[in-house]
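sorry to bug you again but im stuck and you know this stuff better than me. below you get a single protein, a line of residues and a line of whole numbers that encode the local backbone shape. mainly i need to know what kind of three dimensional shape the backbone takes. anything you notice is useful, everything is just below:

***
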Amino acid sequence: MAAKFPPPDQFHWRAGPYRAPQVKVGAVLHDERRGDLEVEGFSEAPIPWPAASYKKGRRGVLLPILCGDLVRAVCEEEELTIAYYWNVTPFMVERWKRAISGATTSNGVFTRLAIMRSDPEFRKQFGYK
């Protein structure tokens, strides 16, 4: 049976490392895709991240809140790298990219993210150096 993801030594940061926001359960964070959310716990991933409930079929799961350094990672890193370190699917990473860029096609997402990364206001908001 094939592994779900390649071994972790295949993932290398382009712009990392990334740090989770220092918050407690019950705090409210702004998710770039879902709006303001209450932190209900932390994800069980290589990078523990504040998470909120997400209805997926009949069961609710904790999904990382798309904020802070995670936004920067989604803009900079490869989808499989993000999927591995935040324990989400590549499909969810693609949805995050579309939410941040506001584009609907793959080429549009790539182009819009490149333009947004060069914007000084965007860079300041999400902790670029």
